[in-house]
Design a protein that fits this description.
The complex is a heterotrimer of chains A (about 750), B (about 150) and C (about 260). With about 750 residues, chain A is of the alpha+beta class. Chain A has 19 helices and 27 strands. Chain A has three domains: about 180 residues, Aldehyde Oxidoreductase, domain 3 (Alpha-Beta Complex), CATH 3.90.1170; about 325 residues, Aldehyde oxidase/xanthine dehydrogenase, molybdopterin binding domain (Aldehyde Oxidoreductase, domain 4), CATH 3.30.365; about 140 residues, Aldehyde oxidase/xanthine dehydrogenase, molybdopterin binding domain (Aldehyde Oxidoreductase, domain 4, 2-Layer Sandwich), CATH 3.30.365.10. In chain A, strand 21 and strand 22 form a beta hairpin. The longest helix of chain A has 28 residues. Chain A is globular. Chain B has two domains: about 70 residues, Beta-grasp domain (Ubiquitin-like (UB roll), Roll); about 70 residues, [2Fe-2S]-binding domain (DNA polymerase, domain 1, Orthogonal Bundle). A five-stranded mixed sheet of chain B has the order 2-1-5-3-4, with helices on one face. In chain B, helix 2 packs across helix 5. Chain B is globular. The termini of chain B are far apart. With about 260 residues, chain C is α+β, with helices and mostly antiparallel strands. Chain C contains eleven helices and twelve strands. A five-stranded antiparallel sheet of chain C has the order 4-5-8-6-7. A four-stranded antiparallel sheet of chain C has the order 9-10-11-12, with helices on both faces. Chain C is globular. The model of chain C has no long low-confidence stretch (mean pLDDT about 95). Classes of the chains: A alpha+beta (about 750), B alpha+beta (about 150), C alpha+beta (about 260). Chains in contact: A-B, A-C, B-C. The interface between A and B is large, with 58 and 52 residues. The complex binds flavin-adenine dinucleotide and FE2/S2 (inorganic) cluster (2 copies). One FE2/S2 (inorganic) cluster sits at the interface of chains B and A.
């Protein structure tokens, strides 16, 4: 192979490091743009009784003031999901009901930022303040309701607004209670995972303008351009054909930009005023007025025999979706769906519970999408079980993990076709020095190093739903344009897809250029989420490239007058029967009067299955017994993402995801005050890992060959987040004897735990 | 107000509001490599050089650069490219939004520290947050870069 | 963007003092690291940068640091590295990053009297004085009490008497604000013990200081001294930690500062 499996630099890497303009605000050079600012609710639950905007409207430089009184009251969801979205239509553009601190009250567009901010201050709002629902555990059947009207749902997701339930889920495989009776050992434990912020470096932003064709142009930093267009079409009540979306480079997304949090504001302002407008969220708005990871609470029951054969996995959960239900049902579902199959050899398994509404910022998609939360609960329980049985936790995994050929009802496609998880565990053990060091090494009276582990799985695209198309065009000089819409947000999908195309076309990578930013030209793709880029769009590219090769042979045969079966294509020339034509010549001829047949090929792919990538993660955590401070001095992650298409891209996914997981494990936490205001709304209060906090992250890959994947590949984008929290908790236990069951594992929890022990 | 300064070796007069910070002014004048990621001086994306030393342009009043020398990565393209090759070779850049600020700190460190230890590098680079990379790839790239060009 | 109606580069500290005390809504512009977050409208922004207040000078008895000196210049200053066990340099390591530290000033740090500060407890333990344009030279400790609100900080003067200084802090993320910080300094045979980020402002633990007077430092004495500190001071809750945790970890930090010395 020329490109597959190699360390290929990213096609845009050099220029990005050099600071070449690439992002939404860099292209946003229309210096007449109106600046949009939003007045937000100071109350977690309130009703607007009266709102007076006269002063703001009269102010010089103010072009547009929107409130619930003068905009559409159509209901919708902002979730970046294929239609029909499995999320309740519980939002409106602006409403008279405030459901969290930060909910939008009014939108002001003015000639400059200062004017817009001034105008905002003059808006007078009278609220009827209502009792908020702030606690996940008492939300269900609370007398206070987050939504008093029944939201529309596209299909039954168990939404019951009268009970503050956004979604209900129950699935049992086998007979859990009956199997539990047969178990020698049952453990039951509770766990809590916190809300996490995406904290991508580029805040949310979008601009709007009207073009010469009277169409609404939206430029946005989004992972989901096609879904954005569909949502805007519904909100504005205009056909999709009237909307053009441009998606430049993203300064990170991590699932945050899988919810269309901001585009509707400039879209509405520009559609009404016919003037260009833009919105750039502050960091504070990015933290407190968009989405976060769902905070969740779990009870896990594991049943096994004396030898550690797992018979039952039973997980019940409660998930906090906040004020609106974007991704509530699907994140909740994925939490079980991407954890139960891990120990698919159990006789019975169950996952059930609710995603509930509260008067907090809505939760949404975040890398890992529920699997991260579920993995903390399940893997922590597995580690507790191992300690209860007195078995090496790595052994317990090796004994029970799902293997190739095993089936599980929660596995898309039912049967596992590829896995190297056992090898991941073995390699990880070796790298961290498990056999020598586990469970702990005592360094001094005050410093102990504990060792812990966890395993995890995810998916590759959404089975039976995600469908992408890629187009290849041969240009007049014999180079190719690859047109796709997998939304590169830094993960390098543009690079990986060019590699795949170049591999099949057998040409140099720089002979394939990419177009992926303009919805008017690119074919449909759901977007950058669900770890679908390489797997779903990659498979589409393979189809397109094969089709292109076929067309090249067909047309060469016509032009050379040689039968197709006698011709051979080697990437540079098509030759046979003593005749030969270079790709360049062929392309020029086809574009000209002589050939009259410019080659355009397409490929479409949608998977019946969503093959799981796996990771085994091992943490070395140095605990300061005197302060409780835990430092991850070494983290080893060994991944099975099928064939590694590009080690550079895969490795940074792994390293970055592990760091994000370490943050989740140790200090990242979205905290609300008693009155429902988010306290952690800046980088001063919400800490992501800094360079000082990350010691060593070591990675390795154990390949497997996934028969349905492009060149055997599976995904890597999300699975990377999941192992650190449980592995760290396990290491802390091995260092201190304390099981920390609610994240994050702060120095305070450890020291106070040690003192009260 | 008008502020006479030098940007990337060229004398320039910046017109700005009294309270405008340099990051905004630089972007207004077309130095689009300068990114902003926070409102609090916490992320390092806006790092430029003030008289050759890394400084946060989001906290630096434009008025304060009167008579000073400002450098952005636009003025360091050759060196930046040299370093960029080490970044892409290690697969250390992802979304790239933090990269210009990060690179400016690296290039300054190369001038300020000789044979820095790992800890010194961490300390020098601590102010450049990156949400994508987990830092280890960046560290590999910059250590190799220092080995060759340091 | 900060809202500054008028911008003045003053030519003397007294001019600054004059404006500060006569113009409503005027403010001295330090590095603006904190000023910019206040969202306050400033009628007259007073810039001291023409006054040469960015010097670090060593005299026989003291080290003087001009108010406009950046934290980064202090951190990298050879004189300060060689004095006080380098504690004034070390305490800055966790303040975000060098790019911020090269902008924020010691004057703004002192004038802000920030309770979370890592620098102020060290200066307090070193027995630093503040030179103000209006009130003249006052001790930092008195200044911290909130007096002299409308004055200009010109410089900090630190006596070179401290022989052994140790600074300790505990943090969630290492570039977060401290959950608690502690400094001990030994000067003329007497200890100063200061605890900051409680989360209230830094304060001296005088009972502990008295207890330590004339005692030989042993592991046991250090332990006892640390417990005295935890008992005599009050602690509070904030997003970074609870009062209980602060009290508990205070014992560890003080003990380590005392027996670990300047490690
Ligand atoms: C993101 C961030 C994180 C931080 N983290 C930490 C930390 O972990 N630990 C820590 O110790 N510190 C921390 N700091 C504080 C920092 O170290 C400075 O103390 C702070 O920024 C104030 O300094 P400044 O020069 O920016 O002052 P400014 O913001 O300019 O001024 C602060 C106040 O002092 C007044 N003032 C300024 N100079 C004078 C003067 N000469 N005379 C009289 N009044 C004056 C101003 O009018 C203003 O009221 C942090 C700061 C930021 C922005
Ligand atoms: S923009 Fe974040 S530090 Fe300057
Ligand atoms: S590469 Fe995205 S923040 Fe650093």
């Amino acid at each position: 192979m020329r490109y597959i499996g190699k360390k290929i630099p990213k096609v845009d890497g050099i220029e990005l490091v050099k600071g070449t303009p690439a992002y939404t605000s860099d292209f946003d050079t229309n210096n007449n743009s109106l600046i949009i600012k939003i007045l937000r609710s100071p109350h977690p639950s309130a009703k607007i009784i009266d709102i007076d905007t006269t002063e703001a409207e009269a102010m010089g430089g103010v072009e547009c003031v929107l409130t619930h009184k003068n905009v559409t009251d159509i209901k919708f969801t902002l979730a970046g999901q294929s239609y029909p979205e499995p999320s309740p239509y519980d939002r409106s553009l602006l409403s008279d009901t405030m459901r969290y601190v930060g909910d939008e009250v009014a939108v002001v567009a003015a000639v400059d930022e200062q004017t817009a901010l001034k105008a905002i201050k003059t808006i007078n709002v009278k609220y009827e303040i209502l009792e908020p629902v702030l606690d996940l555990e008492t939300a269900v059947d609370n007398s206070n309701l987050v939504h008093t009207q029944e939201p529309h749902v596209n299909f039954d997701i168990g939404c019951d607004h009268k009970r503050n339930i956004a979604s209900t889920f129950y699935k049992e495989n086998g007979d859990v209670e009956a199997e539990l009776k047969k178990c020698d050992l049952i453990i039951e434990r509770s766990y809590k995972t916190q809300a996490q912020a995406h904290a991508m470096m580029e805040t949310y932003r979008a601009t709007a303008s009207i073009d010469v064709n009277g169409r609404l142009n939206i430029m946005s930093s989004t992972q989901i351009p096609f879904h954005v267009r569909r949502h805007l079409s519904r909100i504005l009540g205009i056909p999709k054909s009237k909307i053009k979306i441009i998606k430049p480079r993203l300064g990170g997304g991590f699932g945050g930009k899988q919810t269309a949090s901001v585009e509707m504001f400039p879209a509405m302002v520009t559609w009404l005023t016919k003037k260009p407008s833009k919105i750039v969220y502050t960091r504070q708005e990015t933290f407190s007025c968009t989405t976060s990871r769902h905070a969740m609470k779990f009870t896990v029951r594991l049943g096994s025999d004396k030898q550690g054969n797992i018979k039952v996995v039973d997980i019940s959960a409660l998930s906090d979706t906040g004020a609106y239900g974007e991704h509530a049902a699907t994140v909740f579902f994925v939490t079980g769906h991407k954890t139960l199959p891990l120990y698919g050899r159990a006789n019975a398994s169950r996952y059930h519970g609710y995603a509930v509404y509260t008067n907090k910022m809505p939760a949404g998609a975040l890398r890992g999408y529920g699997a991260t939360q579920g993995t903390f609960a399940l893997e922590s329980a597995m580690n507790e079980l191992a300690s209860e049985i007195g078995m090496d936790p790595a052994e317990l995994r090796l004994k029970n993990i799902i293997r190739v050929g095993d089936s599980h009802p929660d596995l898309d496609g039912n049967i596992l076709q590829s896995s190297a998880l056992d090898r991941c565990i073995e390699t990880g053990k070796e790298m961290i020095g498990w056999d020598e060091k586990y469970p702990a090494v005592f360094l001094s009276d005050s410093k102990v190093r504990g060792y812990g582990m966890a395993v995890t799985m995810q998916g590759s695209g959404i089975a039976g739903i995600d469908t992408a198309t890629a187009v290849l065009k041969m240009n007049d000089d014999g180079f190719f344009t690859l047109i796709h819409s997998a939304s590169d947000m830094g993960q390098g999908s543009d690079t990986a897809l060019v590699q795949i195309a170049a591999e099949i076309l057998d040409v140099d990578m720089d002979r394939v250029i990419v177009v992926s930013n303009d919805l008017d030209t690119v074919p449909y793709d759901p977007g950058a989420y669900a770890s679908s880029g390489v797997y779903v769009t990659g498979n589409a590219v393979i189809e397109a490239a094969k089709e292109m090769k076929k067309q090249i042979l067909e047309t060469a045969s016509r032009l050379l007058n040689v039968e197709e079966k006698e011709l051979e294509y080697d990437g540079g020339n098509v030759s046979g029967a003593d005749k030969s034509i270079s790709l360049d010549e062929l392309a020029q001829k086809l574009c000209s009067f002589e050939g009259k047949d410019q080659l355009i090929a397409k490929g479409t792919f949608g998977g019946d299955t969503s093959p799981p990538p796996f990771i085994a993660g091992f943490a070395e955590v140095e605990v300061d017994i005197g302060t409780g401070k835990c430092e991850v001095t070494d983290f080893v992650a060994v991944a099975d993402c099928g064939t590694v298409i590009n080690e550079n891209l895969a490795r940074i996914q792994l390293e970055g995801g592990i760091a994000m997981g370490i943050g989740l494990g140790l200090y990242e936490d979205v905290v609300y005050s008693k009155t429902g205001r988010m306290v952690t709304d800046s980088f001063m209060t919400y800490k992501i890992p800094s360079r000082m906090d990350i010691a060593n992250i070591r990675t390795a890959f154990e390949s497997s060959d996934e028969p349905t994947g492009p060149f055997g590949a599976k995904s890597i984008g999300e699975v990377v987040n999941n192992t650190p929290p449980p592995a760290i908790a396990h290491a802390v236990y091995n260092a201190t004897g304390l099981w920390i069951t609610d994240l994050p594992i702060t120095p305070e929890k450890v020291l106070m735990g040690l003192i009260s022990k | 107000m008008k502020v006479d300064t030098s940007i990337n070796g060229r004398a320039m007069t910046l017109e700005c509001e009294n309270g405008e910070f340099l990051a905004g002014a630089l972007r207004r004048y077309g130095f689009l490599s300068v990114k902003e990621g926070c409102d609090t001086g916490s992320c390092g994306l806006c790092t430029i050089w003030l008289n050759g030393k890394p400084a946060l342009s989001c906290c630096l009043l434009t008025a304060r650069v009167e008579g000073q020398e400002i450098t952005t990565i636009e003025g360091m393209q050759e060196e930046a490219e040299e370093f960029a090759h080490f970044m892409v070779a290690e697969g250390a850049e992802q979304c790239g939004f933090c990269s210009p600020g990060f690179a400016m700190t690296v290039l300054a460190m190369k001038r300020e520290l000789t044979n820095p230890t790992d800890d010194e590098v961490k300390n020098y680079m601590a102010g450049n947050l990156c949400r994508c990379s987990g830092y280890v790839g960046q560290t590999r790239a910059l250590m190799k870069y220092l080995e060759v060009h340091g | 963007m900060m809202n500054i109606e008028e911008y003045v580069r003053v030519s003397s500290c007294s001019e600054a003092y004059e404006i500060l005390n006569s113009v409503n809504g005027s403010a001295i512009l330090g590095g603006c690291g904190y000023l910019r977050m206040g969202n306050r409208a400033i009628s007259k922004g007073i810039d001291l940068s023409l006054l040469g207040l960015n010097q670090i000078i060593e005299t026989d008895s003291d080290i003087e640091i001009g108010a406009m000196t950046s934290l980064r210049d202090i951190e990298t200053n050879p004189i300060l590295k060689n004095n006080f066990n380098g504690s004034l340099c070390d305490c800055m390591e966790n303040i975000v990053g060098i790019q911020l530290r090269s902008i924020v000033t010691i004057g703004g740090t002192v004038a802000g009297r920030y309770p979370f500060s890592d620098v102020l407890p060290v200066l307090m333990a070193l027995g630093a004085d503040v030179v103000l344009t209006g009130a003249g030279r006052v001790s930092l400790e008195d200044f911290m009490d909130g007096k002299h609100k409308s004055d200009v900080v010109e410089k900090i003067i630190i006596p070179k008497t401290s022989e052994r200084v140790a600074y300790k802090s505990v943090r969630n993320s290492l570039v977060d604000y401290a959950i608690l910080n502690c400094v001990i300094a030994l000067s003329d045979g007497e200890y100063k013990v200061v605890v900051g980020a409680r989360p209230q402002k830094a304060i001296r633990a005088t009972k502990c200081e008295a207890f330590l007077k004339g005692k030989e430092l042993t592991e046991e004495i250090a332990e006892e001294a640390a417990k005295i500190v935890a008992d005599e001071l009050s602690f509070g809750d904030n997003v970074r930690g609870s009062a209980e945790y602060r009290k508990a970890v205070c014992v560890t930090l003080i003990k380590r500062a005392l027996v670990g010395g300047a490690e």
